[in-house]
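Justification of resources, computational component.

The compute hours requested in this renewal are based largely on the per-chain cost of generating structure records like the one below. Each record pairs the submitted sequence with a full structure-token output. That output is archived, and it is also reused by downstream analysis tasks.
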Amino acid sequence: MRYLFIILSTFYTLSILAARSVRMSLKQKSDSTTIFTDKGDSCFSAYNYFQASHFYEKAYGITPKVCNARKLANAYRKLGQNRECAMLLKMIPKDSVHYDDIRTLYYVYRSIDDIDSLLFYGDSALRVNPFDMELVVSMSSYCNSINKPEKAAVICKTYLERDSDNIFVTRQLGYASFLIGDYQAACQCYRKLEKVGLSSFESNLIMGLSLKKLGETGAAYDYLLKAAKLKGFKHYTSLHNLGEVCIKIGFIDEGIGYLQQAVALLTPDSTQLYALHTELGEAFFDKHNYKETADQFEQSARFSPDNPIVYYNIAQMYGAVGDKKKVKENYIIFIKKSNLLKDDEDNNVLIEKAKTYLSK
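The structure output for this chain reads:
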């Protein structure tokens, strides 16, 4: 009996010590986690997101709680580590997910242009809070940019039921209406913006194009002229439509002038195209693809037809692929234009080489 008492007493003592040890271990972990999160918070508030992420990583490693996951995810987002941020937030149990988690996932996926994911989380967030103005503007703007104006319009209209004068949402609705083809609605939106002093290139262009579509050419002229001026008369769409409107309202000479400026904007820069085709030719030459080199040099000749050296180079490339007819044709052109070359030793050598070939 005495021995049984000793055994039980020893077991009880060991149990107490073990429990005390566990409590101390848990307290130490809790203390360490608190120290690291406090340091992380301090760095984060000082905009030192890199150092904050290191402290949050340590805290999360010790205690992988949801609150620590959110802190670390937020630091990752600030550092542009979007995939790491998304991975952490998506690990949060469904019954612990907050609105801000869904919202953050939308912005994370928008940053990396993951269309399906951003639309999923954007829709999920707006179902919870359709009056999150910043999210409404971001989502509708994105939908407009990927040719989903109908979706953008629904998002904007829902928001404007409560805050009808919001200029940021009204602007997105105006653009969505224009893309849909509801030009009357587009004009209503942009007129509302105009009343509060918002007059930009975009607003004037969309108003002008919408009024033109509605047949109000006189009013369209004023807006398109403003849009063209704001772009220094260097924007094709505004000039083209302004020219058409001018002709319709009888400003024929003015309209011709704007259309001519539009044509000039579409005319390729021959100097740049010559340089580009020459560079392409030289690249193919480095790959020993002489036929493609010749083709690129021929394109160069189109944009610099009075450059004799181009024809000499074309002849050389056709010589490398054994096309004697093409060699002869280009050497003849080279000789005819050789008077445009500077009279120096290098050019005279090239002229003699071409003449020697042609004399065979």
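The CA atoms of residues 60 and 148 lie 40 Å apart. The longest helix spans residues 2-45.
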